[in-house]
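Entry type: protein chain
Record version: 2
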Amino acid sequence: MSGFPRAGVTSVFTRSGAVGATTGDYTAAQVTNAADKSSAAEQSFTGPVGLGAGSDTSGVAAFTTATPSSGVALTPLATSDAMVSLPIVATTTGTAKVTIGPSTGAENTHVPVSALVALLGLNYTLRVPKGWKVVITITGVTVAIGTVNIQAC
């Protein structure tokens, strides 16, 4: 390439010779998208924030709720995976079964038929792939599905 010097700089930040970056050469304000770690104050960021090797969920991390009926399919989220919290409330004995599966096709049993004890609330939490359905089947006179919490992930 032409137009570029072949040797390093002669001096920078009052240093000369072979010059490398040293602590204090730059502030966070001088570096695009850098966090100021010199302050113990809470940091706030706007825009997508990466999660290292994981996925960036900042644009889809909505929290929603649903009230499903026994035996009826519920699709938590069509566009992203979801953490789903399924509360089951029993005031008499009964059973609960939870299956998940693709929007079309057979479901896989996540929680086999489980006996519910009267006056005991259970909460199942599972990760559901995007577009998949969840079916909660309950039996018992006073066994109910509570409000289902859905968090994109």
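Comment: Residues 48 and 58 are 6 Å apart (CA to CA).
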